[in-house]
Structure formats: C-alpha cells, structure tokens
Design a protein that fits this description.
By secondary structure, this protein is an alpha+beta fold. It is built from 7 helices and 10 strands.
Length: 223
C-alpha cells in the first residue's frame, strides 16, 4: 500500500502545510457557469488555468497538445532545451504585444505570466492548493505535472483554460469539502492574483494540529 493510501488526506495536508508548500488559487470565472465548472473539476480531479488567450489571440502554441509542459516539450522559441528552461520573458513579451497592446508597460503581462509560471513550475506534486470554489475554499493535493492541451474540453467550459493538473480533492465522496474564507486564519482566503504562495502557514498548521488531535480522539473512542 502506498504512503498516500496509508495516510489520511488531512494529515498529508498538515505535513505539506508545515513545510510551507501551500498556495491560494483562484479559478477565473469570466463568462462561466461557476457551479457547472466546479462540478467538472471535482469530477475529473483537476485544476485548470488560462493561458490568457495566448493560443487563440496571440497564435502561441507552447507545446504539442496533450503533452506535459516542461523545458523539454516547449516549442522554440519559447523553450531552451540546452539550458533546460522555459523562456518566460519571451512569452511575456508576446503577451504584452498581443494580449495587452494598449498597455504602456509590461506589468499586466508580467503578472499573468507570473501566475502561469507558478502553476507550471512553482507548484510541485504533493503541494496543497486552497481553491476558491463557488461553495467556499476547498483544499486539494496536487498529484501531477501541468498538461498542455488546446483541445481540452475544459476550455469549452472556461475559455482559454488549456492547462491542467491532476489533484486529489478533500471531499465527502460526493462533493469537495469547503469552508468559508471568513472562517480561515488571516491570509488564507481569496488570493489577490490567480495563484500565490501563502507566506506564513503557521496559523493553518496550528489549526490542523487541533483537527489531528480531534480526529485521533474520535478514532480511539470508536475503537
């Protein structure tokens, strides 16, 4: 039996949060049926992110559809296989020219690319996301790398959401477990940007320690 099967999900979350691998994640809902899209994400066990119309408007094909997005799979000139890097500055400049042509600076393009880069490179399998769903903040554990697919059905539900990662949602078996952002410690609610790392996870660690104690106590009583 694998470690993930032996260890309850909430303990895995506690351990990850303790090591400061916790991110807040907002899913964009522009012109989207929020409930239907959230249901699809839960059903498929994924989270998605937009490419800000780089593919449809900017003509940027970062990688072959269905491939894991990495320095080895990114098409030239967006990747440098010799250096093993994705050329984020090149992609940012294209976004500035094609998506934000009326902006005098590259600030908006830089923030957008920063979110995509964090989603692709900053979050590792095993890290925890606090996802802002319509029903509340839902935790999930990331289980796979970023897949790039312009033909994905997710983009039919949420325009331009052509990148996704497999996750394990905390759930009751039928729906994600969520909590109101107002009930979370300060700094753990909705992110200011699409995705950002929680700078100080200690309040959540303390809360999860209480949850662990309660869970162990209930388990002992049931035995």
């Amino acid at each position: 039996m694998s470690t993930s099967e032996e260890t309850p999900l909430w303990r895995r979350i506690r351990d990850v949060v303790s090591s400061n691998r916790l991110f807040k994640f907002n899913i964009a809902y522009h012109d989207v049926d929020r409930e239907a899209y959230a249901d699809r994400l839960f059903e498929d066990g994924v989270v998605t992110i937009s490419d800000w119309a780089l593919a449809t408007t900017g003509g940027v094909e970062l990688a072959t559809d269905g491939s894991v997005l990495s320095p080895e799979t990114v098409h030239e000139p967006y990747g440098n296989t010799l250096k093993g890097q994705i050329q984020w500055d090149v992609i940012r400049d294209i976004m500035h020219e094609e998506i934000y042509p009326d902006e005098d600076t590259k600030i908006k393009a830089g923030k957008a690319i920063g979110s995509i880069r964090t989603f692709v490179e900053g979050v590792d399998p095993g890290d925890v996301l606090l996802v802002n769903l319509p029903s509340g903040i839902a935790p999930c554990v990331v289980e796979g790398p970023t897949v790039y697919d312009r033909s994905t059905e997710y983009s039919d539900l949420a325009p331009n959401h052509i990148m996704y990662r497999k996750v394990q949602w905390a759930s009751d078996g039928e729906r994600p477990l969520t909590v109101s952002a107002d009930l979370l410690p300060p700094g753990f609610g909705t992110a200011r940007h699409t995705i950002e790392q929680v700078s100080d996870p200690s309040p959540m660690v303390e809360l999860l320690r209480v949850v662990e104690w309660v869970g162990d106590s209930i388990g002992q009583e049931e035995r």
